[in-house]
Amino acid sequence: MTGVSDGSVALPARSLRPFVRRYEGYRLSGFPAGSHVGMPSVDLTIILPIGAPLTISRTAMIDQSPGEFGALASGLGVEPVVIEHDGYQHGIQISLTPAGCRALLHVPPAALRQYIVSLDDLLGDDAPRLLDGVHAASGWAAAFTVVDRILVGRLGRATLPDARLDRAWIQLTGPASVTVGQVAADAEWSRRRLETRFASEFSVTPRDAIRLGRFTRAHAMLRAPEPPRFAEVASACGYFDQAHMARDWRSLAGSAPSVWRANEVFASVQDDSTASATGSTV
């Protein structure tokens, strides 16, 4: 049986765009049963399963047991998560910027680390309203409108981080080649001060932020149905060479990009260039 993908990618309401990267609705069926690797990223992740909970066989934190998880959030880090599936997955993934963690979940990213945290613990009464609305929605656009409404209502209730930390995150994870020392100088901090403040806010080091930026860009390019050659991806994403990219992928994803691409049945079914773009303008 040929796998079928019915999904949609949407921008959030305008007031949410500094905090939410995108919404990604997915409904995948008819694929072979197997494992899906949840990759480290520059974004935090909220997942709203529609139907069955997620079965996670490998968590990112060694002191958190695998198991079944409903609606969840997870923070920043450098470890992959492994999700088992029977060839069917249905839900919405929300990608938050680090600033969005404070603005919408009302905690800094370091409070989550890479633990899998129930949305009930983070959103309180908003969690059941969000899930009930998404389950009742008649389509992707209606579901994304529900998410917009709940998240917009959570704005303005939390203190945002020092602007220098937000700027440092953008500099270190962006495409421009910068050093930790340059970013520290821009913030008018010592390098040690930057490293301490950065880790206390984001739970990753400045060097790991650089790695996550490169990796996220490479992952996005390799998700395409017809991705560029690996050497081209490595050059475009700031790696020294293809071997450097392969070493980083083995560390962050658990396998070289060629192995991930060959084994990941969901690699390109939700590629941004093929999914329909919807979204509100609140």
Molecular structure report:
This protein has 282 residues and is an alpha+beta fold. The chain has two domains: 4-158, Jelly Rolls; 163-263, Arc Repressor Mutant, subunit A, CATH 1.10.10.60. Helices cover 41% and strands 20% of the residues. The protein has twelve helices and twelve strands. Strands 1, 2, 3, 5, 8, 10, 11 and 12 form an eight-stranded mixed beta sheet that branches. A four-stranded antiparallel beta sheet has the order 4-9-6-7, with no helix packed on it. Helix 4 (126-136) packs antiparallel against helix 5 (140-152), helix 6 (163-173) runs antiparallel to helix 7 (180-187) and helix 6 (163-173) packs across helix 9.
Number of helices: 12
CATH architecture of the largest domain: Sandwich
| Count of the domains | 2
Uncertain parts:
268-282
For this structure, the CATH topology of the largest domain is: Jelly Rolls
Mean pLDDT score: 91
Succession of helices and strands: EEEEEEEEEEHHEHHHHHHHHHHE
Count of DSSP E strands? 12
CATH class of the largest domain: Mainly Beta
Separation, N- and C-terminal Cα atoms: 41 Å
Biggest sheet features: 8 strands, mixed
Percent helix among the residues? 40-55%
- Beta-strand content: 15-25%
Architecture blueprint of SSEs:
Layout: E1 4-5, E2 8-10, E3 20-29, E4 34-38, E5 44-49, E6 54-58, E7 67-69, E8 72-74, E9 81-85, E10 89-96, H1 98-105, H2 109-112, E11 116-118, H3 119-123, H4 126-136, H5 140-152, H6 163-173, H7 180-187, H8 191-202, H9 206-222, H10 230-236, H11 242-253, H12 257-263, E12 276-278
Parallel strand pairs: 2-12
Antiparallel strand pairs: 1-3, 2-3, 3-10, 4-9, 5-8, 5-10, 6-7, 6-9, 8-11
